[in-house]
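Before going further, learn to read the protein records used in this course. Taken together, the tokens spell out the fold as the letters spell out the chain. A record is reproduced here so that you can trace the correspondence yourselves:

***
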Amino acid sequence: MLEARDIDLHYGASHTLRRVNLSARKGEITCILGRNGVGKTSLLRAIFGLQPVSGGTVTWEDKDITRLAPHARARHGLALVPQGRDIFPRLTVLENLQTGFAPLPREKREISDEIYALFPVLRDMLRRRGGDLSGGQQQQLAIARALVTRPRLLILDEPTEGIQPSIIKDIERVIRLLAQRGDMAIVLVEQYFDFARDLADSYAVLERGEVVLAGRKADMEESAVRRYLTV
């Protein structure tokens, strides 16, 4: 289980996150919602160690990881699919997938058949350069690369951004399947409300760096959440 407690985060003099709390359980999907610029990506960066927190703690599987470097968190089973995908455009699809080997011991450095079962299109494109793929295919590659690390906590930052509807459906199916396995916690940042609502087991809404709404999906009041998403 992931527990982020009383997280404060600064960028210089800017107080970006204010005493934010978030939990994520294995077998469940936790969705973080909010408009642009409210601190969603900053919260993911804090969880993954890409930005040091000013206060609060991050624990994973009962271990305090607040001060661990990102590569050490990856070795503890955390994986991040960043906004914008950040694949290597000049590497092939296979080489991009193999970059996921970095946190793994040598004997586990293999790409499981399950990844190709989840994303069949990638098997047919292994020799194609990442930069030649469509936006939707690049997003599938970014998720697959994260799965190569064999994560127990998968963090996705706006996976539907700029993606065609048919690929969004494929990504939704994969995220749901991963959660149903029961061995992985999933944290999903999303602005597309319907996508998040359909997947979420629990949710948190950010506004100006603070959690203003949170709870289980069954208790969600849609109109209240949507007010914090409209511009």
Observations:
- DSSP finds nine helices and ten strands in the chain.
- Residues 26-50+68-203+213-227 form a domain with the Rossmann fold fold (CATH 3.40.50.300).
